[in-house]
Amino acid sequence: MRKILCTLVLAATALTAQAQWLRVWKAGESTRYAISEMGNVPYDEAGTTLTFGTDNYSTVEIDSITIINPVIIKWEGDEATVDIPETAEGVTVNISGGNVVINNTCNDIEHEFILQGASDNGSFTYNGTYKTKFHLNGLDLTSTTGAAIDIRCGKRIDLILEEGTENSLADCAGGSQKAAFNCQGHLEIAGAGSLTIAGNTNHALRAKEYLLLKKNLGTINVTKAAADGIHCGEFFQMNGGTLNLSGTASDGLQVEADAASDEILNGQFILNGGSIDVTLSAADSKAVRLDADPLDATLIPEMYLNDGTVTVNLTATALGSKAIASDGNLTIGTASTSPSVDITVAAGVYVDPETEEKNRATGLKADQTLTIAGGTTTVAATATKARGVRAATLTATGGTLTVTNTGSKSEGIKLDNTFVAGQGGTVSGNFKY
C-alpha cells in the first residue's frame, strides 16, 4: 500500500495542472477530494489508515483511489469552450456557437464533465454508451434550438449539483425535444446545489428509465412545463433534498411502470426522506402520479411515502385533478417513521368535453389499497364537489388520517369496501360506500 500511495502522490503532483480530484472508492461508492485542497495524505506507521482531509480510511476497506481529470465545458454568451484533458480517452467535441455536442466512444472509463457559465443561446448534447458523471457548477443555460441538456446514453448517469451553486435550464418553445433536461438512461441526482428548470415544449425533466434523488440533494425547482414537470420510467426514489413543482400544464411528477424493464424495482414510487411540494393548476391531471403498465396487469404499482414531507395544493383551476394517485397500492408511513402529508383540494369537477364524463378533484386516490401505517396525513376538500379520498380499500395500522370536506356537495372518504377500524391507526372523516 505504501508503494501504491507514493505512486499516487507522484502522479497527482505531475498532473496538478489538469487533475481536479481524487476519488476514494469503498464498497462500490466513492468520495471526491479536490487535489488543490488536500495537502498531505497522512499514512500511519502501522500501514492501516489513510487520512483524506478529515476522513480516515482503513486501508483494507479501500477498493481503489483514482485521479479524475474532468472535461470542462464553459459557456460565455453565444460562445462555448471545451477543455478535454489528454486522459479523457474517446472524447471528441463539436461546437457551433453555444451549442456543444460531446461524443464519447470509451466503454471502460467513467468520464466526468463539468458544465458551467451562462448562455441564452446554448445547449449541451452528449452521446455515449458508458456510465458518466456530470457536474453542474453554476450553469445558466437556455436553448434556442431544442433541449438545454440532452443525455443520449442508456446507462447510469450521475448528475451532481455542486454545493453552493445555483443552476438553471430552459429549452426553446415549439421544438420536438422531450424535455428541457432529457436523459435516456438511469438518472441519479446528488449534490447540495440547486437546479431550476423550465420546460417550454414538453416536460421540464425526463428520465427514460428510473430517477433517484440522493440523500445529500439540495433543491430542484420546476417552474414551468408544457407537459409534466418530471416524467420518468420504471421507478422513482427520493432519499432527501427538496423538490418544488409548479407551473405544469399536465402532471407534476409522473412515474410509469415498464413491463419491458429488467430492473429489480419497477412500478414503484418510494419517498424515504426529503420534501416534495406541488402546486397544480392544470385540469384533469395529477400532482404526484404512479401509473401501471397497460400491457402487464400482473405488475401492480406500489407507492410508498415512507418518510419526509409531501405538500400538495390543487388550485381552483385543477378541475378533476388528483393530488396523489396510484394505479395500484398506496402506503403512507411505517411502524418506525412519521411522514407528513398535507393536501388541499380547492378544485371541483371536470367534465370531459368529448365524453361528458365527470371526474371529481381528489386528494388521495388508490385503485387498490390505501394503507395508513404511520405519520400524519391531512386532506381538506374545500371546493364544491371536491373529494378527500378515493380507494378500493382503506387500512390503518398506525399514524393518523384526517379528512375534512367543507365544500358544497363535497365527499370525505369514498371506498369500495367497508373500512375496518381498530387495527392501530386513527382515521377521521365522512365515509361513503
Helix content: under 10%
| Gap between N and C termini | 70 Å
The gyration radius over C-alpha positions equals 24 Å
Query: If helices are DSSP runs of H or I spanning 4 or more residues, what is the number of helices?
Result: 2
Which sheet architecture does the biggest sheet show? 16 strands, parallel, barrel
The proportion of strand residues reads over 45%
**Shape assignment:** globular
Mean pLDDT: 92
Low-confidence stretches: 1-18
Number of strands: 40
Overview features:
4% helix; 16-stranded parallel β-barrel; 40 strands; 3-stranded antiparallel sheet; 433 residues; mainly beta; 54% strand; globular
Brief summary of the model shown:
By secondary structure, the protein is mostly beta strands.
Task: Give an overview in words.
Residues 1-18 have low confidence and may be disordered. The chain starts with a helix and ends with a strand. The protein is 4% helix and 54% strand. The protein is globular. The strands form 4 sheets. The chain has a 16-stranded parallel barrel. A hairpin with a 2-residue loop joins strand 3 (49-52) and strand 4 (55-58). The chain is built from 2 helices and 40 strands. The chain is mostly beta strands.
